[in-house]
Here is the input.
Amino acid sequence: MDAVVATLPGTALSAEQAHAREFEERLADCPKLAYRVALGVLRNPAEAEDVAQEAALRAYRNFHQLRDRERFRGWIARTAWRLALDRIRAAGRRERREVAAVANVPEPGVEEVAASRELQKHVERALDALPEKLRIVMVLAAIEGYDTRELGTLLDIPEGTVRSRLFHARKQMAESLKWVVKNTPA
Amino acid sequence: MGCEEYSGVMLDAALGALPAARATELRAHVSQCAACASGWEAARALVAAVDGGVARIVAGEPSPQFVPRLRALLAAEAPPAVWSWLGWRASLGLVAAAAAAAFLLLRTPQRVTHSPGASAPALVAQSPDSSVRTAPVTAPPAIARSHGITAPVVVRSPFDQPEVLVPRGQLALALLLENAITRRQVDGGQLSALDQRTAAYLELKAIEIAPLEVRALGGGADTRAPEPIEQGRQ
Here is the structure.
């Protein structure tokens, strides 16, 4: 049937072909997003790739259930987030992840204090200590190119809620890192 | 505001959460107070450490093999059976409907049928509690007649809702009647009595027509010639 339809002129497509094509278009830049979201939880590139792949496969299998296709990016990001959390919880890999994180810290950035590996470890611990709702906002906000409006769309929450959660997440992390960074105000 | 108060809001200011007016005030103070300037720089460094640290966590790129491997996995994946899934769902719906119908048939002790001798189809009002049944209510014959009830259709709704016999095409009317009776807005007996009164007003009676007296033509007949037409003119 599909072969017959494919030979017809014009844009006639079978339901499955149209489904696959739309999925392909929607997926375009999502694997990278899923990878980074997973990396924000797992801190291990290999595991993050596994999770991102699994998220994409699940999205493919269940794409027909997604009524609002505009929410595809948020859907795949949340799927990756949940899968990464499940992986952490199931395997109890917190210690292994911390070791891997130290090994994968990139070269120091602009800020001198944040460049130190010791401080990076503290940042990661502070991030892990955040409640899940605050943590996912913090991770997604850190992924380049997402403002609060886009985060609201991704997470399916109002923009004001995103701003509020982001503020509380950053403040909570800053409070817990005060003792690390010298000359911090009381 | 003094230095202590400024110090208390420096972190909020560094996070960009201070109202614009107060933020301006703080910056003006910091430009004049060396101690607060130091604290302000520390607060900004702290926030930068937080933001930069989290950004570094998610800054990694997937390996070059990642996307080709994902595409290969997706290509190997069987296409999602959109239609077969719908078919499966439809099948499930049919099975559920059949099970519900069987359940109702088994649970309903009294099945209402339309007997040829009945003047109108019966409507059985049934309370939600299946153990409590009200007496059958007969739909007014006038309604039955006016809607040309000939071959009733058994309509069964699930969950012990009233069971109604309706003619084809008259489902809405039957549902309205059933609703009115169920809500006790209308009493079946009253309807029936009203119908009888209405029927009495409309009772057909034979009209007696007196036979016309026609005089026989021929013998004894009026032999006068008809008056000429001109006679009537002036």
